[in-house]
Design a protein that fits this description.
The two termini are about 30 Å apart. The longest helix is centred in the last third of the chain and has 17 residues, at about 110-125. This protein has four helices and three strands, in the order αβαββαα. It is α+β, with helices and mostly antiparallel strands. The chain is flat and about 60 Å long. It has helices spanning about 10-20, 45-55, 110-125, 140-150; strands at about 30-35, 70-75, 95-105. GO terms for molecular function: dGTPase activity.
C-alpha cells in the first residue's frame, strides 16, 4: 500500500495511517471514564461522549473536532450471552461494564493539556465517573519521543 505508485484516492487514507504508524505518530491517550452506575438507565454511548467532547472545544482552541476519538471497551465476564450469575452462589447483580477511553490524534503537549480539561468537563456534564488520567501519556508527545530516540542512540 505504501509503495503503490499510482495516486489511488482509495489508498490515500491507508497510506497516511501506515506512514503514521511507521513514524510512531500514534494517537495520544487522554484518559478513561465510565458511567457512574453500571447498568443504570442513564445509557451514555460512545457517540454521546464523542459529540460532547467535540462541542466543548473552546472557540480559541487549535484542537479540531476530528482530533478526538473514543474507544468503547465492553467487559462481560467471559460468558457472552450466558448469564454467569446462574453459575455462582454469591454475586453482584452487575454482569457487565463499559469503559470509554479517550484519545486525541494530535501530538502536541498543548493539545493534550487542553484535551484533559475538556474531558474532565464533559465527564462532569454527563455525570460520569471522575476520569482517570495517567501521567505517562505526556511522555508520548512527539517532542518527548524525539528526546527518547536520542537517548536510545
Amino acid at each position: 500500500i505504501i509503495l503503490a505508485e499510482e495516486d489511488d484516492p482509495q489508498l490515500k487514507d491507508a497510506q497516511n495511517i501506515l506512514r503514521n504508524i511507521l513514524t510512531r505518530k500514534l494517537y495520544v491517550y487522554v484518559g478513561q471514564t465510565q458511567p457512574k452506575e453500571a447498568g443504570s438507565s442513564n445509557k451514555i454511548t460512545k457517540a454521546d461522549l464523542l459529540t460532547d467532547l467535540q462541542e466543548n472545544i473552546p472557540e480559541n482552541s487549535t484542537l479540531k473536532k476530528d482530533d478526538f476519538d473514543v474507544l468503547e471497551v465492553k467487559l462481560d465476564f467471559g460468558m457472552g450471552d450466558t448469564n454467569p450469575i446462574e453459575h455462582v452462589h454469591f454475586y453482584n447483580k452487575i454482569i457487565h461494564e463499559v469503559i470509554f477511553r479517550v484519545l486525541i490524534k494530535s501530538y502536541s503537549e498543548e493539545h493534550l493539556k487542553e484535551a484533559h480539561g475538556i474531558f474532565k468537563a464533559v465527564c462532569e456534564k454527563l455525570k460520569m465517573k471522575e476520569p482517570s488520567v495517567d501521567s505517562w501519556s505526556r511522555l508520548l508527545t512527539s517532542a518527548n519521543l524525539t528526546n527518547l530516540e536520542s537517548v536510545d542512540q
